[in-house]
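Q: My labmate handed me this sequence with no annotations at all. I'd like to see what the chain might look like in three dimensions before we decide whether it's worth expressing. Could you predict it?
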Amino acid sequence: MTDSYPTRIEPWDEHNRTLLANVHPPDWQNPTPDGRYNLVIVGAGAAGLISAAIAAGVGARVALIERRHLGGDCLNVGCVPSKALLRSARAIADVRRAGEFGVRTPDDVAIDFPAIMERMRRLRAEISPVDSAQRYTDMGVDVFLGQATFVSNDTVEIAGQELRFSKAIVATGARATTPPIPGLKEAGCLTNETLFSLTELPKRLAIVGAGPIGCEMAQAFARFGSDVTLLEQAPRILPREDPEAAGIVASALAKDGVRTICEARIDHIERRGDERVLNLEPANNKTDLTVDQILVGAGRAPNVEDLGLENAGVEFDTRSGVRVDDFLRTTNPRIYACGDVCLSARFTHTADASAQIAVQNALFGILNLAQGGRKRFSDLNIPWCAYTDPEIAQVGPCEHDARDLGVEIQTYTQRLAEVDRAILDGESDGFVKLHVSKGTDKLVGATIVARHAGEMISEITAVMNAGGGAGTLGATIHPYPIQAEAIRRAANSHNKTRLTPTLKSFFNKWMEWTR
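A: Here is what I predict for the chain of 515 residues:
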C-alpha cells in the first residue's frame, strides 16, 4: 500500500497548515516506550481515537499509532469536508427556491466556488483540535507517528522502537480505490482523498458510481454550477437502498440538473489535453462523454497491507479486511479490530460503536461477566444515511432485504405530503416506512426519506434498542408541527390493524350498552 497522504496538504493555506499542525505535527517527537502497554492501537481514525479515549479514561496505559493524519478519513477527506460542501449546496438551492416562499432574489445567483472550498477548509481546521495529537497526549496516551509493523504476537515496531502489549486493536480503516478501467490511471481522476483540494470548479464533471457518495457529490457540484454526469453500472442509482426512496432522490438529482446514465459500462478513457473522454456503452449504444474531471465515488479497500499482521497470527483478506468474530476478536486472541478495516458497514458511527465493543471486550475481562458477558457486534442496530437532498435514512432491513433474509414483515407508510409541517416547509417529497415483524408489534427496521431524515431515524433506532415496538412510537407525543410526526402516524397505522373485526364488534356492543 502506498502512502497517498503527503505531509503538505494542498492548497497550502493557513487553514491546512493549522489542520496539519493538529493531526500530524511536522515537528512531532515520538515518546520512548517504557514497559508493556495495556493497549496498543494501530490507526487513529474514528475507531482508533474512540478506542484510545475509552481505554485512557479507565486508567489503561495506551499507545496510539498513526502513519498519516489523526482523525482518519472522516475529519480529513470524508464526513467533515463533504458535509461542509453539502451545506453550501443546500444554501444555493434554498436561494434558488426562495420565490416559492414569497422572497424575491436576483435571477442569477452568484456562486463563489473558491469561497465555498475555503469555508470547508476553515471549518475542518476549527474542528481538528478534537482529534489532535496534543489532545490525546494530554489524555495520557502515548501518540506515535509513523508506520506500525507487528513483529510478533504481542509486539509492534514503530520508527525503530518496539512496543509490547497485553492487548492490541487494529483500526487502520479503509481507502478509496479506483476501478480497472483502461486509461483511467493515465487520464487521472479524483477520489475523496483529492476532491477537497480543488480550488476551481470543474465545468464538466463525470462521477463514477451512484452510491451515497456519488449521489451526494453529484447533487452538490450540480448546484455549484458543474455540468454533472452520474454513471452507474446497476439499473438504478442507490442500488442498495429502498427502490422507492432511490426514485425520489433520482428525481431530485434530475431537478438539480444531474444527468444520470444507468447500466453504463466505460469501455476506456482517453486524455486529450486538459479533457478526459469516456467511451461509454450504455444500453449497447456507444457514445463519448467529454469532461474536465472524473470523480470516482465507488470502491473502498481495507488498509491491511504493510502491517505485518501475518507475524502476529492475524488472518486478513485484502478485500474484506481483518477477520474478526462477533466479539471483534481476531485470530490472535490478544488482538481485536474495529471500524472499516474489518466491517462491511463502513460508517464513522459504526466505527465508534465497534470501538466501544472492542475496548470493552479486550480490556475488561472478568468484569464483562458481571455485566452479562462480552459484547457482540451483531446486537447493534446500526442506522445509516445518504445525505442527498432529500436524505435517505435507514435502520434494519428495507423491504427487499427482509425478503432476501426470509423475514416476514408488514410495512406501514406515512407520506410527507400528508404531514402539515412538511407541506408548510415545501418538503413534501418523502415518506416514513416502518417495518414490523408480521403478526407482532416488534420493529424490524425503518426507511425515511426527508430533508432531515438522518435526524429523524434515531428516534426509531432508540425504540428498537430499548426493545419497544410500533406501539411505543405511536404513544410518543411529538410537538406539533414537526415532520417527525410522520413516524407516529406510521406507527398508528400499525396499531389500527390490531383492532380486529371481533374486537370492533365487541366495542360497538359495549358502546350501545353504555349509552
